Predict the 3D structure of the following.
Amino acid sequence: MPELPEVELVAKTLSKLVAGRRIRFASLLRQRLAPHCSPEEFASRLSGSQIEKISRRGKHILIDLDRGSTLIVHLRMSGKFLLTDAEIELPKFSHAVFELDGDQRLVFVDQRHFGFMRIVDSAAASNSQELAKLAPEPFSDEFSAQYLKNVLQNSSRSIKELLLDQTKVCGLGNIYAAEAMFLARINPLTPANRVSTVKTNRLFSSIRDVLREAVAFGETSKVDPENIDGSYFSGGFEDRWFVYDRENKPCPRCKTMIKRTKQAGRSSYFCPKCQRR
Ligand SMILES: [Zn+2]
């Protein structure tokens, strides 16, 4: 599942490729992709609009259109965009199609069917159900060491679960949460309100560090316009992970074997020595 850096890459790539272009016609091929509107409404609200700006909020992509609507997109497990020539046959699992000027089209393809789209009024986008409760952006001033401390002190859930809660800390998923906890030397099972101030401060910096490094990596990677999925795995980014997906491999700091445990149904990776409870 793409996390903040990957979604940032998708938003930036789309911005380069389609910002300023006009959607001649939009069609929703799989109704459940946009459960809040009918295919007719999808077509009438988007067709004829010019794409003004493409940005990111948390793990959502925001496509602002000139007629006052914003299309909110969440890629979830496998959603991706393809920019192709208009004549090419639609690939399997095409769930939405945007016919663009210049005889091209932007296709949303989603093999796992978890992707999500919603059209909202741009002026009220930040109040939408998807965005209203999101925690501050990790690189904003609002997200501070003090903010993180307050959030941690008010929860007895494990620090891992808290870091994945987008209403508390925004942008992290399983990968970058594991990496940030490793750098901060925090065991993922530790209750959030038992994390010391020293470790909380370290965690604040490490969250920004891991995200910043991944965003920077994204800026160097070449994205195929016919496969805009924001995946770093094919770009070799997994070689840089300290603990994520490295069960039984040596910790880069102390050479102890990395352990994997299940938390809320998902794998957590950590060094049992560096990240003692
Ligand atoms: Zn270690």
Remarks:
- The longest helix spans residues 197-220.
- The chain has six helices and ten strands.
- The chain has two domains: 4-127, 145-270.
- The CA atoms of residues 152 and 195 lie 8 Å apart.
